[in-house]
Amino acid sequence: MNFHQKPTTFVANVTINVTDIKRSTEFYQHVIGFQVLSQTENEAQLTADGKTALLTLVQPENVSRKQPRTTGLYHFAILLPSRQSLASIVPHLVNQGVQLGSSDHLVSEALYFADPDGNGIEIYRDRLPEEWTWNEGSVEMAVDPLDFEDLLTKENVLPWTGLPENTVMGHIHLHVDDLQAAENFYTQGLDFEVVTRYGHQAIFIADNKYHHHIGLNVWNGIGAPRPAAHTAGLVHYTLIVQDADKQKRFAEQLGALGARVEWNNDVLITEDPAGNEIHIRS
Questions:
Q1: Domain 10-281 has what CATH class?
Q2: Cβ neighbours, 10 Å, residue 26
Q3: Nearby residues of 7 by Cβ (< 8 Å), 6 or more positions away
Q4: pLDDT < 70 positions in the chain
């Protein structure tokens, strides 16, 4: 099962506001290893394979710094194709002076840091699905220490040459203001399944039994406000769905929930109850 291609519903692109497009483009190129797919004065589309934009940077007019304790982006997660590619980026990030967090989630091994505007970034590799443990519809995940000694063996660490071309946007993790409202929206409107719960603090949802395509949490507070327009942070993210029929069915389900439903040509635009905007394409 490829969890990041049709017929699975998956996150394909994340678009964020930044305060300095030149600084951010250089960061994502030189520190993370993206290539620039296209660029204008205030927007840059970034790619790993030279064809598909995984991340879009926008510098709006009168942009302001990221606001604390709002809904919006917690992190977006870049999925590398192998453990070797994860191991190989570690020395590079350390040499660039990046302050790294890390974790072993049982289903994956992950690094955490932030861009110059404080937008959260995860870079991770998945363990094989047959190594994941499922129990009554829930996948077992943890926040264990990452075993760097085991990861950074001579065999694993290869010369760093940027992101491998089969890198994808693995998932997105969002701050919301009401966990139950978010769960209703994503499960009833977009057919995701809850695959893990962390008490009343966070849920992880997926399609086709991935460990999660979207994380949702209330760590910024129940009832957290939405960020003001034109602040650094999430603009929208893009979901790819199987076909136009599923896209239309989602529009009907979202409409029945009272959610925003707009069409821009063949793109369905909605937003979750916390104001996180979603573009749905087939």
A1: alpha beta
A2: 12
A3: 208, 242
A4: 1
